Amino acid sequence: MKRNVVEMVLGAVVLLVAAYFLVFSYKASNVKSTNGYAIHANFAEIGGLSIGSDVRMSGVKIGNVSSITLDQESYLAKVTMSIASDVKLPEDSSASVASESLMGGNFLNIEPGAAEESIANNGYIQYTQDAQNLEKLLGRFIFSLQGSESENETAE
User: Fold this and answer.
1) Predicted model pTM
2) Among residues 124, 51, 62, which one has the least CA distance to residue 93?
C-alpha cells in the first residue's frame, strides 16, 4: 500500500512538471493568432514557408501566414496572410520570402511602398519575390568557379 502512494505522488509530480513545461514552452514560443485583416500574394516558389510563419516589416512581426494553397488557374502558390489591424500597408508594397538563417526558417518580408492608398481586406500584394534556393545559388557559384579555372588552364 505504501508503494502505491509513493508511485501516485511521483506520477502527480511528473504530470505537474510536464504541464508546467507545456505552458512555459507555449508562452516562450510567442505563438499568438493575429486578429486583423487578410491579404493575399502569389509566388512561383515559396521554399520552406509554412502556415504560421511570421510576416515582418522592418524586422517587426506584423502578422502571420494563415493559409497556403495552389491557384488552379495560374499554378502559383497563393499565400494568405493575417495582418494586424493597426498596420496599414500601402498598395504598392512588395512581399518576398526571406530566410531566417542558413538552417532554414523562412518568413515573409514586407517592403512598404509609397502609395497613399492602403491594401483593403482580402486585397492582393502585386509585387512579390520568390524564395531563393540556396542549393541552386551554391551550384551556380561552384560551376562559375570551375568555368574560370578551366579558362585559366587553357590560357596557360
Assistant:
1) 0.66
2) 124
77 burial via Cβ count (<10 Å: 0-12, 13-18, 19+): buried
Q: Nearest to residue 52, comparing CAs of 81, 76, 74?
A: 81
Locate 94 and state its grid cell. 512588395
DSSP characters for 94-122?
Answer: EEEEEEEETTEEEEEEEE----SSBPPTT
Encode the chain (156 residues) as per-residue pLDDT tens digits.
Answer: 667 888 888 888 898 888 888 877 766 665 555 578 999 999 998 988 899 999 999 999 999 999 999 999 999 999 999 999 999 999 999 999 988 876 667 899 999 999 999 999 999 999 998 887 667 777 888 888 776 655 555 555
